[in-house]
Design brief:
heterodimer; A: 297 residues; Purple Acid Phosphatase, chain A, domain 2; 7-stranded mixed sheet; 13 strands; 23% strand; B: 115 residues; alpha/beta; Immunoglobulin-like; 2 domains; 4-stranded mixed sheet
């Protein structure tokens, strides 16, 4: 398939998300996502405003990602943007991003902030545009097709020298939000920074994520979607599937390679292969659903 | 006599201390002008620890391809995102210990001691 940006398709099968290869999903004769209901697409780390060698045109690559999503055989109902919408939290970056994202043929766009989105005092630029669902807190929940979605904000309570943080208030809110839900409710948690430790020296983790994960352990199907690290890392722990999405703007080095988690310059003819989105689908029958990463190539 | 002797010694001490203080001021003026630059390179503040006198302006300049910020733990100063080659300055008027962090990469920390 000619899609070179990163993406992941998630399908829920029998209440459990299992991965499918979106690139194969459209091929005839392949099981793929057939029978699955497109649930949502995850976009991440669009970094509008970035202008360095690693990708002089992140707006162009976001547009390509949008075209790709709009052309999916099964249209998703929701888009989840897992943060770093902008590079420097500037109003004009947010405006450009919003204008581009308005080209998505979906009814709902749900966002969480990345640390690049909240560098202005009070994070006014982000919250004035995207703060309504959360009352300016950055965390909130909603339901769609029987799936409970929880948006978490782990980029505003950082501790010096440490990792992302959710904070006590948000953890209390999460406990209350989940308390009366049936364990058979499929959960999708999404936040910018990974909710498990991928590489602590670079802050690639969330210090108090374990307290959130304890609260979701009783659920039969939990999918945790993150961004921040501009590459796919995934693991499954019991009923919890963790997955990080590619960026649509530029890749980053593998954990611990180089001096820090900065933009990774790859040959320009390979860039689209290093970028992507993730699609999540809800399966109509077991063994046919899951997550699919699509590159922007 | 005794008193006078003590007085004389005190004067000597006072003069000596005064001379040392003058020397110290001269040395400070030569070594530490009213402005100091902290470079941000390879995901680190260089130097990460610095001691300055009240009235010193510290300028942080980012040389990385990645934006960084300078945010004081106590909320005393906050730069916003600094893109490549952008800088932020703050003048420390009072003595104290000011710890700071990059809000984009909180493993990057530093401290300014104003004394």
């Amino acid at each position: 398939m000619a899609f070179g940006m990163g993406g992941t398709l998630y399908t829920l099968a029998g209440g459990v998300l299992t991965p499918i290869d979106l690139a194969r999903a459209g091929e005839s004769g392949d099981g793929g996502a057939r029978g699955a209901i497109a649930l949502c697409v995850q976009l991440s780390d669009t970094h509008i405003g970035f202008n360095k060698d690693a990708n002089p045109d992140p707006g162009g690559s976001l547009q390509r990602a949008i075209d790709l999503v709009n052309a999916l055989p099964t249209a998703p109902a929701l888009i989840l943007h897992t943060g770093d919408i902008t590079h420097l939290s500037k109003p004009e970056e947010f405006d450009t991003a919003r204008q581009l994202l308005s080209g998505l043929k979906v009814t709902e766009l749900h966002t969480v902030p990345g640390e690049h989105d909240v560098t202005d005092a009070g994070a006014m630029e982000y919250f004035s545009r995207f703060g309504q669902p959360s009352g300016g807190k950055g965390y909130y929940s909603f339901d769609h097709r029987g799936v409970h979605f929880v948006a978490l904000n782990n980029v505003m309570q950082f501790k010096p020298g440490g990792l992302g943080q959710l904070g006590a208030e948000q953890l209390d809110w999460l406990a209350a939000d989940l308390r009366n839900r049936s364990a058979s409710t499929p959960l999708v948690l999404f936040a910018h920074m990974p909710l498990w430790s991928i590489y602590e020296p670079w802050g690639w983790g969330t210090g108090d994520a374990e307290q959130a994960l304890l609260q979701v352990r009783r659920f039969g199907s939990v999918t945790v979607l993150n961004g921040h690290i501009h590459q796919i890392v995934q693991k499954v722990e019991g009923n919890v599937r963790f997955h990080t999405a590619r960026s649509t703007a530029y890749p980053q080095p593998s954990p611990g390679v180089g001096s820090g988690p900065g933009p990774l310059k790859v040959p320009s003819d390979q860039l689209r292969r290093a970028l992507g989105v993730t699609e999540i689908a809800l399966a109509a029958h077991p063994h046919s659903g899951g997550l699919t990463d699509i590159t922007l190539e | 006599m005794k008193n006078r002797s003590m007085h004389g010694m005190r004067s000597w001490v006072r003069i000596t201390v005064g001379a040392l203080a003058l020397l110290s001021v001269a040395a400070t003026a030569a070594e530490s002008p009213n402005s100091v630059v902290v470079e941000i390179r390879d995901f680190a503040f260089v130097p990460a620890t610095l001691a300055v006198h009240p009235g010193t302006t510290v300028t942080w300049k980012n040389f990385d391809d990645e934006p960084h910020s300078v945010v004081s733990d106590a909320g005393t100063f906050r730069s916003g995102a600094l893109d490549t080659n952008e800088s932020f300055s703050y003048t420390f008027s009072k003595a104290g210990t000011f710890r700071f962090v990059c809000s984009l990469h909180s493993h990057m920390t530093g401290v300014v001691r104003v004394e």
